[in-house]
Structures are given as C-alpha cells and as structure tokens.
Amino acid sequence: MVKLRNAVALGFCAALLGACEHYGAEATHVEDGFELQRAQATAAPTDPFSQGLHSGYLDLAASEFSEGDYEDSDRFARRAEAVSQGKRVEPEHPITHRWIPLEHRAELFNGVWRLQRALRAGAREWAPEPAARAQVMYDCWVQEQEENFQPDHIARCRDGFLAAMEEVEALQPQPEEPAMMPTPGPYVVFFDFDSSALTSDSIATLNEVVADANEFNPAKIMIAGHTDRAGSNEYNRALSQRRAAAVTDYLTSNGIPAGSIAVDFFGEERPNVPTADGVPEQANRRVEIEFAK
Questions:
Q1: Phi, psi values for residue 222, rounded to 5°
Q2: Three-state SS for 184?
Q3: Coil, strand or helix at 188
Q4: Which H, E and C letters describe 197-232, residue by residue?
Q5: Cβ atoms within 10 A of the Cβ of 43, count?
Q6: Is 60 exceeded by the pLDDT of residue 218?
Q7: How many whole angstroms separate alpha carbon 24 and alpha carbon 192?
Q8: Distance (Å, whole) CA 267 – CA 278
Q9: What's residue 33's pLDDT?
Q10: What is the CB-side half-sphere exposure of residue 88 using CA atoms within 13 A?
C-alpha cells in the first residue's frame, strides 16, 4: 500500500510540473530506484561467498526495479553495496525487518534459523556459492511473502532457498570421529493463539526431536514453554506450563524417558520478539527444546 501510494503521489507531482517538490525529494531518496545504478557500479568482492551475495542482491534489485517496486529494489541494492564495502550482511529477520502474515511466520522463522546455523558452522568457507545463494533466496522469500500476492514468486524463492540449503548441508564437512558430531537442535515448536494443542507442524518437529534423541542419546532434554504478551502474567505462565506439558507428553509417549527431560516455563517473561504488553505474536507462542550433552 505504501508503494502504491507513493507511486500515485509521484505521478500527481509530475503532472503538476514540480508543485510537489518537497514530497518528490523525500520519495526519491527512498524509492526512486537510483540505488540500483549506484550498486551496479560497485566492485565485486574477491571471496566467493561475498561475490555470490553481491551478484545475487543485484539481480534481485534489478528484478524488483523492472516490476516498479523501487523500495525493495533500493533495499536489495543497498545490501549489494554493503557487501562490496566488505561489511557483514546477515539474512533478513522475518519478524523484525518485515511484516509477515501470521500464518507464514513459523516457516520463515525455522528457515532463518536453519540458515544461520549453517553460517555459524562455517558454510561461508566450505560451501560459499550455495550458502550465498541460500541467503539471497531466503531474503527474496521474505520480501515476496511480505507482499503475499504473487504465489509463483513466493514458491520460486522458497524452493530456491530449500534447494540451496540442501546443497549447503550436503557439503558440510563430517568430523573424523562420530563422537565429535555437534549436538543437533535447538528445536522450536509453535502454537496457535491461546492454545496448547500440538499442530501438524509441531508434531513433525517433535518427531525429529525423537529421532535425534534416539541417535544422539543426550544426557538431558531441556524443554521451556513460552507465550506472547496477550493476557495476564498469571494466565500466560499457566499456558506456557500447559504447552511444555504437551510437548513432554508427546516425547514420553514416543519412547523418550521422562527422567531425561527437564521442564521449565516462563509465561510472557522471555519473548523472542519484543512487543508491547497485550500484543499477540505468533513467534512468541512457542516451546524451545535443547539437548544437553
């Protein structure tokens, strides 16, 4: 809506031959697409990962420019320019950087965690090209999902991200000794508003927890329940306890010994995404699961 409103305003200003000079200057600074031309003039970095980010963000900027989305074209162009300057450019956070429809937040949240885990493990060095492609496609997915009106574009970016991540993870060096393999996780299970019922996505994550626990045999499985900030402190604390209990019951019913599970619950005290009191937020309605060695 902001992009459409600015485009209409700019067209109106042009019709009046400069009568809206002040608005035009403001809009030009943010959305005129001139960032693309400046970014295209920057030098490509020398390392393969940064080269992939630089060219990928330039491609996204050019694509958005061709669609008339000058705001996002500028945004991607600035990321390409920052990479050229040697700055560390991280993947976009789907909650703090964009407004994502609630029903898509959990999927994007898990995607960025998967990507960041690989980057922290050294994917920039051992899989530079696919790691760069994964980050560019993830940022593309976030941008298209925020707009949420071109399903073919959303699918292209999401599928590109998932394919690149599979390539990254396939290239990850394996430790010489199995005992040195990193502990899997952490895992996050999300819940619907004011609910402690497990969803199909939650169950899929918990099945992964069960499989990994059977393979890695952690000394302890740490479970922590959380809520968003809608409702009273007392109610949310009880709700976070019920969510933690639902996860615990599922794990124990699938063969995980109750003695290996440690449970805690925090209500609304530790939001993953800071919000004002009373604001519902899907990313905060969660149970976090970690393995302890």
A1: -95, 125
A2: coil
A3: strand
A4: CCCHHHHHHHHHHHHHHHHHCCCEEEEEECCCCCCC
A5: 8
A6: yes
A7: 43
A8: 13
A9: 66
A10: 4
Helix axes 70-84, 2-15, angle to 10 degrees: 100
Q: How far apart are CA 54 and CA 82, in angstroms?
A: 9
Inter-residue contact 185 to 223 (CB < 8 Å): no
Indicate the average pLDDT of the chain.
87
* Residue indicated by tokens 């959303």: 154
CB 229 within 8 A of CB 277: yes
Nearest in space to 52 (alpha carbons), one of 129, 107, 142: 129
The answer to whether the beta carbons of residues 136 and 156 sit under 8 Å apart is no
Give the total residue count for the chain.
293
Q: What is the pLDDT of residues 155-174, one digit of tens each?
A: 999 999 999 999 999 999 98
Burial (CB count <10 Å: 0-12, 13-18, 19+), residue 68: exposed
Of residues 108, 91, 89, 90, the one with CA closest to residue 99: 108
> In the block, which residue shows the tokens 């639902």?
246
Specify the CATH number of the domain 187-292: 3.30.1330.60
Separation of alpha carbons 172 and 102, rounded Å: 33
Domain spans in the chain, listed from the N-terminal domain onward = 2-171, 187-292
240-258: pLDDT as tens digits: 999 999 999 999 999 999 9
Helix (H) or strand (E) holding 25: helix 21-31
Supply the pLDDT for residue 102.
Answer: 87
